[in-house]
Design a protein that fits this description.
The radius of gyration is 18 Å and the shape is globular. By secondary structure, the protein is α+β, with helices and mostly antiparallel strands. It is 30% helix and 8% strand. The two termini are 16 Å apart. About 3% of the residues have low confidence. It folds into two domains: 103 residues, no CATH class; 55 residues, no CATH class. It contains seven helices and six strands.
Length: 195
């Protein structure tokens, strides 16, 4: 899953990451795609999207590689692991986005998963899972507490990562009709996550 975290947990993470990129541009993969992690509403700052690392399959050669090791030590020297909450999810997300091409990241859309209120239950897997099918970004905006001052991204993290067709919205008339029919008003996407 690809979720939004509360920015108050790691206020210096993006500044520290930007300084790493400026100091070591040669380590950033030529096909790196950080665009889906940058918020144009906030002058290109980190939008706080991250892969949920509770279910993660990775290659240890990547995590033990030169670029990832240098990045980890860079962050460690800044103290964010101790004085803030530089957790594994945002660190892994930023590292993967910087050090490998996006096409090598696999989204497990066929696997049901739930953590707290965030869940994904693929419709074609309902017979194998004990869950009701959900859109791929169920409860996305509820993960950051209301009292958090951070702005929510225009689109959900998973839709930004997937891009293309996943970002196309339905027209206002269709969305208004859905709300009148009891929908939550959030649906407005052309693809529901059931595809």
């Amino acid at each position: 899953m690809n979720i939004l975290d509360d920015a108050r947990s790691f206020p210096s993470l993006w500044k520290r990451t930007r300084s790493f990129i400026n100091k070591h541009p040669e380590l950033v993969h030529p096909e790196a795609d950080l665009d889906w992690l940058l918020d144009p509403q906030r002058q290109g700052d980190y939008n706080n999207c991250q892969f949920f690392s509770n279910f993660e399959v990775g290659d240890l050669r990547f995590f033990r590689g030169k670029a990832n090791e240098k990045y980890f030590h860079w962050l460690d020297r800044g103290g964010g692991f101790f004085y803030e909450r530089f957790g594994d999810a945002p660190i892994h997300t930023l590292a993967v986005a910087m050090f490998m091409p996006k096409r090598e990241v696999w989204y497990f859309k066929d696997i049901g998963y739930q953590h707290d209120i965030n869940k994904h239950c693929p419709p074609h897997s309902a017979h194998r899972c004990a869950c009701e099918p959900t859109p791929l970004d169920e409860n996305f905006y509820k993960l950051v507490p209301y009292e958090s001052p951070q702005k929510k991204p225009t689109d959900t993290c998973i839709r930004q990562f997937l891009g293309g067709e996943w970002l196309k919205k339905r027209d206002n008339w269709t969305r208004a009709k859905e709300v009148d029919e009891g929908g939550d008003g959030y649906g407005g996407y052309a693809l529901s996550g059931f595809e």
